[in-house]
Amino acid sequence: xFSALFSTGYAQKEQPDDTVDPFKDPKDxxxxxLRYIPNNLLTAIAVALVLIVAVLQTLSIxxxxxxxxxxxxxxxxxxxxxxxxxxxLHSDPHSSGLYITQYLFVTLSPCAFIAATYVLLGRxxxxxxxxxxxxxSSRKLTTIFIISDVVTFLTQAGGGGITSSGTNPNNxxxxxxxxxxxxxxxxASFALFSAIFAVFLYRVYTKEKSLWRIDNHKPWYIxxxxxxxxxxxxxxxxxxxxxxxxxELSEGFGGPLTRNEALFYTLDxxxxxxxxxxxxxxxxxxxxxxHPLASAVENxxxxxxxxxxxxxxSPESAAxxxxxxxxxxxxxTSTTHMV
Length: 339
What we know:
The chain is α+β, with helices and mostly antiparallel strands. The chain folds into two domains: 3-290, Rhopdopsin 7-helix transmembrane proteins (Up-down Bundle), CATH 1.20.1070; 309-337, no CATH class. It has 13 helices and four strands. Keywords: Membrane, Transmembrane, Transmembrane helix.
């Protein structure tokens, strides 16, 4: 699938002209596909930050598990590699081969981030025993969207391969269109997934508040809602990036959006960094394991009941919060009025 990354046909087609100074006027240099000289300082910062996230995610897998998030971690390493290739473009801005390779790494790596997110929602719903609040079963959800991710990945890779191979001028017209179709399909698919995720959270919150608050006895940063919040931020980051890339390629390679380094970092690299870095303090393996969250809380309440003889019920009413203490079958009720 990554064979397109190393294609040389496009590079051979546009051999640099040694008589042209690539640093004199990059904005109007037709041999410079970026139309600017990549800033090495920005490249170094971006590569360092993404690599730090990749390493921390690797350590999190070893410490807390969740190997099913490994696709995101692997994708982060490839994303850092793609960003690192911009060092080469700084020295040799006329290299079409370097440009194509870094472009494909940077644009295809997020497919791995998206795949991990698809898996995560299904895992979370099963851990909460809340699959009934999904629009479709968690297994079907994961399967359908993973297939979608693979198809859109192959479409983008195929478009990149067509663009970079052969001597037929039509390849440079057809290839970008196929690539754009893959990006647009990926954006539509992830937008639909995000809507399903939003509906899931809304249903849990409105229809079963006890489940929403099932681990409120824990510090906020280790509650399942903290992980859900991290997923929301991650989804927003991916949607921003996907929208930017779709708009960028709709202008064609070499369009105004492609030529703006500030936009590249602001609307592509930064949102993706947020999308993967947000899981460092909220690593899914800390929240989701072999024991469902609902069962774990229920077991805790049963243990407290067996030890003290008390079980607490806190239904809400218009008058306030009704606290019922049940001791070995006999209830004592008190009401805390809302101010």
